[in-house]
Amino acid sequence: MKDDTMIRQLPFIAFIALSACAYPMVMPAPYPSARVAPQTLPTPVNPGSSKDRFIAAVTANGCELTSANTQTVLASATLSQQDMARIMTELRAEGRGEIGSDGRSFRITTGACL
Known about the structure:
Blueprint: H1 2-22, H2 50-60, E1 64-65, H3 70-77, H4 81-94, E2 97-99, E3 106-108
Antiparallel strand pairs: 1-3, 2-3
Helix pairs in contact: 2-3
């Protein structure tokens, strides 16, 4: 009797096993993937030439570059110390800037600083 029950259950178990394997797997059709270009962060834009930025920064700080406001001017004009020295030399040669009377400051002599 025990073998008879087992034989009766065998087709049922086989049916379940085969039906699980026969289930149609839905596979999506291969489509070309739409590639999204990676987003790049915009670079900070500081309009104008380095000389224009320097003049604007010094003008905004009282038309005179002193030891007290040098770091502020460099930061707002996004310049290095070397760039600032080069620009000051160029402005002096162009007649648009001069060394202050104390010999330690630089004064803009153009635009709003006349």
